[in-house]
Amino acid sequence: MTNEEIKEKLEKYFEEQGLKAEEASEEELNKAKAMVTKIPYCDVAQIEIGPRALSSLSKDKALKYCCIPMEYDAMDSSVLRIVSDDPFNYDKADDLRIITGAEISFYLGSRSAILKKIEECYSGIKKDLAAGTTAVPKANAPEGLRGNAPENVSAKPAESMQEKTSESVQDKPKEGADGIERYDVNEQWAHSGIVKAGDYCFLSYCVGNVGGTIEEQINGAFDNMEARLAMVGLKLENVVQMDCLFRDVYNIPIMEKVIKERFHGKYPARKSIQTNFAHAGGKDGLHFQADAIAYCGRK
User: Fold this and answer.
1) Which of 274, 208, 278 lies closest to 245, judged by CA?
2) How far is CA 262 from the centre of its chain?
3) 20-33 pLDDT per residue, tens
4) Is residue 147 within 8 Å of residue 159, measured between CB atoms?
5) What is the tally of helices (H) and strands (E) in the chain?
6) Distance in angstroms between the alpha carbons of the first and the last residue of the chain
7) Domain spans of the chain?
8) Closest residue by Cα to residue 114 from 164, 51, 64
9) What is the CATH code for 151-295?
10) Is 62 helix (H, G, I), strand (E, B) or coil?
11) Can you give the pLDDT at residue 157?
């Protein structure tokens, strides 16, 4: 639908309501736009998005495209739901498909509310990580939205370990009779985002900023790792071993630079591996993933 067609439909809609489009508030205009285009409207101020939900898109990209990711479709994990002020922009949709490695399902939201939510959410990640908090809020998504799949992993295309809202995923730890605690459990994919066993915690599929530069993706993976470690009160400095997966292993020097910047001299033992990621983003998609073991015996 072109902008001209949308404008004509809006004028007709407001005329039928006995109103004038130019006198409508931003929210009223967007709700009317959603009505005539059949694109669902989202009250952005009412949704809560945890730090893992943002790892598919950097703050810079969210601001550039004026959008914020909500969750992956429960029935089709290759579809990512995103709130945008301009869901009719096909170039934007194509760019977001490459960046996230997923098909995009747009929701319409007001520009001012989206920009405010971006600042609130991405600033919140930094504050939570700095404080070492363990709480990760669940999404209070609009009606009809539920569930997520594991994050853009090497074994499954276009999936995301974002915050989970369906009953198949549990943010609270599941403790077995053996005393092992499993966090971020996804029953659908038979996967735990972080497992605490004795004095150690095990993490896998840490990725972020998919579609960005290799340095952005490495930082995104460590952001994702940091957020998960915070669930059990740990920091990057607690990591004692990492397996680092590259699409191009010659990017190791870039990773070393980032590690020096973020681990403050407390470097883990590590192994670097070159692999092909089964990822919908193709060559412009996933380029880096990290798995880790962290020591939690003494904090």
Assistant:
1) 274
2) 21
3) 777 777 777 878 88
4) no
5) 7, 13
6) 56
7) 3-37, 151-295
8) 64
9) 3.30.1330.40
10) helix
11) 31
